[in-house]
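Key result, reporting period 2: structure in, sequence out.
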């Protein structure tokens, strides 16, 4: 295995230090509570299209945003690809940015992970990669992982319902929507194409928020 030396390749080195800074157990999948609402939403969107699946985005705390995307699973019952970022400035821009684009961001901690279930009762949180701002405390990555596992174990996502996640009519023109990505953003393809490039929906999932989902922000 090659030894990574400082100064050989700065980009590789920076990313590797984030990965190396977490304890080995970080990568071990963690069992979590079954996510029934996510499971039925996944089945609903995949029944409409296996190729165009939405990326649902949630604010879990003022400093924490999360994306969950249902995926096709071959040997698993359920699979989701997820990413989350913790930062004082955590928002959709930071969540969807590339490593390079985050270069000038304030301190942040970033993780990509899978949620999967081989059976209805055996859900797991499985980290795939992690990163933090250079010079940020790598312990923040471990903390981010623990907060996410906690949110799933608290069954915070059980309140999700299809009508909250999938609009059946275009908000701009009222035309019926059938494609899951259009349904998730509430805007049909024609109206979307003529609007700005990005108009994401960030669902409020703050733990104590009253009527959390009613407060979805456009
Ligand atoms: Zn429309």
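The corresponding designed sequence is given below.
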């Amino acid at each position: 295995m090659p030894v990574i030396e400082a100064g050989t390749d700065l980009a590789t080195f920076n990313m590797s230090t984030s990965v190396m800074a977490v304890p080995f157990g970080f990568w071990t999948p963690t069992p979590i509570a079954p996510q029934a609402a996510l499971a039925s939403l996944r089945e609903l969107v995949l029944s409409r299209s296996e190729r165009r699946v939405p990326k649902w985005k949630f604010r879990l705390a003022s400093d924490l945003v999360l994306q969950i995307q249902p995926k096709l699973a071959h040997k698993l019952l359920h699979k989701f690809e997820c990413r989350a970022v913790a930062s004082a400035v955590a928002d959709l821009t930071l969540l969807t940015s590339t490593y390079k684009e985050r270069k000038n961001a304030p301190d942040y901690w970033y993780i990509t992970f899978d949620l999967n279930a081989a059976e209805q009762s055996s859900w797991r949180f499985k980290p795939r990669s992690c990163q933090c701002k250079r010079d940020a405390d790598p312990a923040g990555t471990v903390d981010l992982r623990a907060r996410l596992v906690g949110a799933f174990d608290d069954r915070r996502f059980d309140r999700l319902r299809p009508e909250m996640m999938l609009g059946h009519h275009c908000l701009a023109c009222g035309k019926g929507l059938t494609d899951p990505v259009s349904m998730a953003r509430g805007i049909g393809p024609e109206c979307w194409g003529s609007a700005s490039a990005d108009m994401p929906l960030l669902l409020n999932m703050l733990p104590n928020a009253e009527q959390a989902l009613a407060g979805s922000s456009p």
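The radius of gyration is 18 Å. Residues 170, 172-173, 175, 188, 190-191 surround zinc ion (CB under 6 Å). This case is discussed further under Risks and Mitigation.
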